[in-house]
Structure formats: structure tokens, C-alpha cells
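User: Can you write out an input/output pair for a complex, sequences first and structure second?

Assistant: Here is one pair. Inputs:
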Amino acid sequence: MDDEILQDFLVEAQEILENLDSQLIELEGTPGDKALLNAIFRGFHTIKGGAGFLSLEPLVEVAHKAEDVFDLLRNGRCMLDAATMDVFLQVLDTLRGMFDALHAARIPDPAEPALLAALRALAAGETPAGSLVCDVPTQDIRSPAPGDGEFDDVVAGMMAEEAGASPASDLITDDEFETLLDKLQGEGRGPAILAPTPAAGGADLIDDDEFEALLDRLQGEGRGPVVAPPATVAATDPGLITDDEFDSLLDELHGPGKFAPQAVAPCAAPAETAKPAPAAPTPTKAAEGRAGDTGGETQTKDNTIRVGTDVLDRIMNMVGELVLIRNRLSNLQASVGNAEVTQAVANLDVVTSDLQMAAMKTRMQPIKKVFGRFPRVVRDLARSLKKEIDLEMIGEETDLDKNLVEALSDPLVHLVRNSVDHGIETPDLRAAAGKPRQGRLKLAAEQDGDQILLTIEDDGKGMDAGVLRGKAVEKGLLEQDAALRLSERECFELIFLPGFSTKDEISDVSGRGVGMDVVKTRITQLNGSIEIDSKIGVGTTIRIRVPLTLAIMPTLMVVLGQQIFALPLVNVKEIIDFKRSQAREVNGSKSLVVRGKALPLFYLSRWLVQGVHDYAVDDGHVVIVSVGSQMLGLIVDELIGQEEVVIKPLGAMLQGTKGLSGATITGNGRIALILDLPELIDAYARR
Amino acid sequence: MPLSVTDRRPGRPLRVLVVEDSVFFRSQLRRLLQQDGDIQVVGEAGDGREAIVMASSLRPDLVTMDVEMPVLDGIAAVRAVMQVAPTPILMLSALTRHGADATFAALEAGAVDFLPKQALQGDGSAANARALRERIRALVEDRAHRVPIGPVAPTAHTEAYFAERSLLVIGASTGGPALVGDLLAECAAHLPCAVLVVMHMPAGFTGYFAERVARHCALPVVEARDGDVLVPGHVWIAPGGRQTLLRRGTHLELEIEDGAPQEMYRPSIDLTLASAAKRCARRTLAVIATGMGHDGTAGSRALHAAGGLVWAQDQASSVVFGMPGAVVNAGLAHEVVSATELGRRLRHGR
């Protein structure tokens, strides 16, 4: 099988499958949603079509049967119930498994016979439970059978006539007939028309009224017959309808306002045909992509190509190099002081920024890729825990770096499962607490500057700081008095400690308390942060911030000794001047009181510069960083400023060095090491 | 409404707009269509609405149209395209009952022809893709257009076209479903002969076609079954994938057989006409209507020789003048008749 074609198929099919997952769950809430039923039908239909094209029989079989059932559903001849839903979720899992097999270059195994049987039963009008809910009419469209008494006489007369009136010349002989037949059959080669497929149930979906309205609009009321357009291929034909009428048509078809005025002049202004208005509320990317530049004679429009992520990574890397050179040039041109050079560098600056954005865009994917899994996750979990949960998702279209999307997937799933398992109470408990029986879980994503903010919010029982304190002490994770000193928020963060689980009974749902610390680590690795907000009885909100992209990082450049280091800006909270006299010594370790709060204080140089273990300065700067729930002050020698850097991996010699995440080249051409603060602090500052 | 006849300069590639919601299928169609270099996919629309916009801006020579699409389905799109930018439209449909339904709706809406999508997949897809390209060339080069039967003022014609016939056989292929639908809708309730429609259609489509045209036909219409006795004033549609012959039992009746797989057409107009020539030639009128190829010519020759009557549809009203043209060229047509005139005669009903 042509691998290229197979990959093309898989890309689309998997996208459809992801959509089906959430569409099915959505359908469970609104089983009568016609548009949704149609969309799901089309999803299976398209998978079937593509799989058929590639002769992937196991896939065709499942998708076809699923399509059949949805054909009944969308025509209202069948109702969806929970048992049916389970069958379809199983169908999706089966398809997923088949896609995985194809990815691994294996021919997928046929689906479980039991599943196929269940689908067959559904298509035949039975629910999995066996009761009949479908009403499939038997088709017998034959009108009064010929041979009815009424006609017999006529026929008899006809036949008599025929028999009587046939002279020999009227007939060809049997032999002649056979010869002709042979000749005809000999002539035929190749396949006869097409392989028949037995008709499945189905009915006409066209809404005639709707269409008549459309035609009226197209032609304008009271118009005479439409004249055929002149024989030309040029797209400058005035067309058969006025721009306004066409506009109305498009509005009619899509609801007003989705098309800019110029979209209505496909003939007069072909280049602008069907460009959605900038303010279009619904994404019409496909339309824009394909229809946006219609009109040329020679254009061919295949607007998507598949590009390996390695290529994108390389492009991104080279753009990174370019950014560094640009930074270097900007620095140099100041010393040259030539107006033309300044101008050229300024232009380069603009182009480089645009290029950087464009390159970043190629790697962007909507967070939907992750969110799409949640309706299913939540539904399955809620069902097994006998909870009622309404999942709301906001900002699914938010784009972020592909690597981030993938990296966020597992942590997010874990957090969502946690909310369902530990956060939201059972319906009875909720009712007892005076809350609606159905719990609410809200997932939101939004871009916030150069960060993405992800929010997971439940209206469950909330977290009890006192209980968390007690647990931490009980498990020996914390001393009693240390625990008492923790603020409420710091208590919440205890759940990120390894080996912390608050539920008395460990369920197999949220794992065994090993998850949250992993979640935390993952998010931190992405240069992100995670914070928890919770109120007893009201609910818990978890906010995750991650940078838009992993390739470029805003940093604070500092100097230690003779060397430049870059601190990820995400960790930096504030910078204050430092006088030695301000430092306090507590239990042998330094601390600094900032607005009444004592922060541990460290000389960064002692960790990072060779031979300065007892290094100290009288004046300097303190960079206050937050790492997880911890805030601390780092004394640096000199501040350079904020700079966006392109992260380069460390060479083999330095790879794995604790506290370093990479290196970069600064604007003045020097190499700076990028610090991994969580790791660094872990390695040097912990107790 | 006549379609725009695009001025195809020799050597200019044939310009096709592909309408299909599956990105995968679109790219495959593009690949298959452009294989020979003489067909160029000038646009790809992902739904019916885009199809309308692109058909009117691109003015392609032909549109291939999917049925199941978001936003606006293929049938509505056909109707709108035929209004805004009349273009030959080839439906690519699913071989299911729903697919058949939709296909006929699309043909009624003005699509000229259809091909089952399954034809493009699996084994033999190369041959079938060739057939698809052939079909597109024929549809465009025969300046395909569909002329619905126009309004006819009742005239005082007194010719009895059908009164002396027991059997009217209508043979058609490309462009046939729409034509036959129109013709049957014209049929007078008192038509004095039995009508047998032999049209190149896949199995599964014909039964539904019968059901569909029956809604607009004054006569009962059914898909033919083995042993059905021919009676006047009834219409039979020869089932797809099989052969329909005439045999003499106690009455003149239909014989349905599976046919041999190597037969090019199932149903074959030639076979039906040949058996008619043998059983009831003098009482048979054959109409060879629009269609590619030359099925019907050999059968017409047999019928002609045996004393039957043969009409051919004229070129102007044929979507593809292949089959009727072959009959005319072979000198077998007693008369060349337009679709409108055929309709008039059927309405006249004598």
C-alpha cells in the first residue's frame, strides 16, 4: 500500500475520530440534535470511504455498520440510549486500535465479532438490551401485482393477438438469439457496472422548503428565466444574480454576517471571493484556505501538505539562529553609527520577527487536541463513580506549540480525573450540602500575553488546608511546627509532594498519589507554573501557565563573576537592590525580609562560579524567584536585562548537569547558560 | 436551462471542480483525475456552500459532487450551482439506499450523471479511475447539458404512436435517470402499452429509482421481478446488476437472470431488445436515449430486422449522444425524436 496515501488517510481519519469522541458525548446530552447526528454520520461515512479506498476491510466493516446505525438515528427511526452509547464508544476504541495498527504498519485485525453483532442488532432495530426501539419500515413498493383480475383479460387479449399475429419473419430464431447473446457477452470485458452493495436503510434528507427559499433568493422574485452565461471561463462574468442577491444567499445559507461584502462578488472580484469577514464568529479556515483566491485560470489548489515535524524543528532552529544574529547585529550597529546600516538592521528586525512568528505558527495546534479527550474521560469516570458531571470547555481553539500540546496531555488528564474523583461529590452528598446533584467541571484555555493559561475548575467539596497539614505531618513529610507555619495556599501545594494522597480509600481512578508530583514536575519542565485555589464546600480551581512555545524563552540575563547566565523570566517575580546589612542569619542560613516575609537567600555565584564558595558582596541585586510554592532570593553580581533567547541544547560534555537547561548566544555574541531553577534549587538549596 | 457551453480550445486541459468534504478523498480524486494530464482540478470545495461560490467564480467545465457534506449537502449544492453557474455535474455517490436516494435527488436537481464512489477503490481502481476520466471527458465534450421537457401546448395530434404496440422499451445510460424520470412523469394514465426501462444502473439503485419515479408517474412503476407478466399501463425498471429478458409463459412475461460477469452492461439494452425481437418484435417500440457507448445498437438491429420500431433521441436533447448516435449512424432509427417530443407523445398517450 502506498504509504504516503495511507498517512494522508490516517491524518484525516484520526482527526475525525477525535471529533467523534466529543461529538458522541455531546450527543448523549442532546440525543435529538439533528446537526450533531448528521455530523457523526458523516464522520463514520468519511472514515468508511477512505478506508474503502485503501481496501482496509476491517475498518470499512466497523465504520460502515456504525454509519448504518447513525443513518437510522438521524432519521429519527431509532433513539440513542446509554447502552447504545457504550457500543459506539467501543467502536471508537476499536477504530483507534486499528489506526494504531496502521501507524505501526500492521494490517488491523477485524473488530470483535461481539461488537459487530451489537452493531448489526442496532442497525436491525434492536437495542443492545434486545428491546425494539427502531421502526424500520419494510419496503414493498410494488403496486397491484400484475395478474390481478382487472388486467388478466387485457393481457390475455394482448397475448392472443401477439401469438396470432406473428409471422415467422417477426421472430429471430433461438439460434440467432443465442448467437447474438454470445456475441454480446464476448464483447464485454472488464467489470460490469459496479459491484452491488445491498441498500441500507435511509431516507431523503432534503428540505425542499429551505431550498425553494434559496432559489427564490437566487433568482429574485418575479424574474424571468435565467439566461445562460456567456461561453467563457474567465471569472469576470456578471453572473446571473446580483451581488446583493448572492450575499443574501450566502447569508441564508450561513446566517448573516459571516461573509464580508466582497465575498458576494465572486464574478466581479474573483480574487476576494468568499473571504470570511475578519470578525467572522465561526472559524471558516477551510473556506478561507481553499476559496480565498479562486479566480485564476492556472491555479491549482491543494493548500495543505504534510511536513515532518523534524523539518519544522529545523526551520525553527534556523529561525532561532537568525534571531540571535539579528540580536548581534542590533548590538553592532549601535557602534557603527551608520544611518543606512541602522535602517537595514531595523528592516531585518521586522522581517525576522515576522518570520519567527510565522515559523512558530507552523508548529501551533489547537488545545482541542487534548481537550477533545475529556468528554470521554469525564463521562467514563463519572459513570463508574456514579457521579453526575457537566463538563464545560472554553477556548478549545487556543493554539499552542505542538510539543506543548503533547506534553500537556498527560498532566491535564490526570488533573481532570482528580477533579472528578476527589473534587466533585456524589449526587447524594451534593444534594445534602444543598448543591445541585450535577457537578460542574470547567476546562478553559486562553492566551495571556506570551503564555497560555489553562484552568480546571470544579464546584466540588474543595480542599481543607487543615486536613492537608495533618496528612503531611502524619506521613512524615513535614514537621508539626513547619506545617503550622504554612499558609493556606502552601497547604494546597502539599499535594504536589511525592507520596501524598488525601483520599482515605485509594481508588484506581486517580492513581495512588504518585500522580500529582509528576504533574508538577512536567509542568515545571515546560517552564510553566501551576497553582491551586480552593474553598471548602465551594470548589477547587487549578491554574496552569505555560509559555506559548518551548523554542524561544524570555529570560533575565545576569552576570555572575565573568559569566552570563539566563534565568527563565517565568520564575522571576521581582528584583530588589541588596545591601549586605539587610540579610538576616537564621539557623545558619541567610534570609531576607521582604515586606514582612522572610525569604531564604542564596549567592547564586557560590553554586555556579568555580572557586567562590565563600563569595560575598556588600551590594548587589536580589532576584526573587518563585519555584513551585517556594519563594527565594538569589543574589547576583550584575543585571543585564531581559532578552528573548533561543534555547540550544547543551553539548555532550555538559548534558545532564544539574540546574542547566541549555545555552544560548547573547546579543553581543557571548554564550550564556540557561538555568533550570527548580532543578538548581533542588540540587543546592534544599534543607 | 441549457448549460453554458464552455469554449474548450483544443489542447486546453479540462477544468474540473472537486466538491468533497473529506480532505483525503479530495487529494485522491485530484491525483486520479490529473493522471493523464488533460484534466486539471482547478478547485476543491469542502462543502456545498463553497461549491456554489467556487463554481460561479471558477466556471469549471465540470463539477464532481459528493453528497454527504457539512454546511450544505450535495443535492442543495447541485440545485444552486445549476441556477448560478450551470455546469455539468457528476455525482460521486455511495452505493447505499440512502446514496441512491440522494443520487436521484441530485439528478432531478440537475446533475447529469453519477458514479458510485466505490468504483474508485480497492482492486481494479486503476481501471475504474480511467473510466471516471473517460466519463468526464465524454460529459464535457458532448457539451453535456440537460434539457428538461418543456411545456407543451395540447395539440390535436391524432397519430397513434403506442396504440399498436404492446411494449415500449426505453434504453438509456448517462443522463438517463433524469430523462426517464421526466418522461414517466409525462406518461398518460391510459398509455396502452407496457413500459420497460432498461438503464445502466448498479444493483440497489434501480429499485429505489422505481420507487422514486413512481411518485410522479400516473402509472404504477416497479422494479422488474422474474415472472412479472407484462400488462399495459404499467412500468417496469430493469434491475441493476442483472439481465432482463422477455419470455413467453402463459403470457408475455419478464425473465430476470444474473447474467455473466463479463457482460459489460447489466442490464444490457442489447440483450433485452434481442429477446424482444425474438418474442414480440412487431409489437415492440424501442427508444434509445441518451448514454455513452453503443449499447442498444445490436439489439436495435435485431429488432429492426424483425419488424420492430426504433426511435433515437436527438443529439440536442441528449446528455451524451453516444448510444442514440450509434443507432442513428447504423441507419436503424425509424425516427429521431427530441426529449420534448417524446414527452409530448407519451402525454398524448396513444
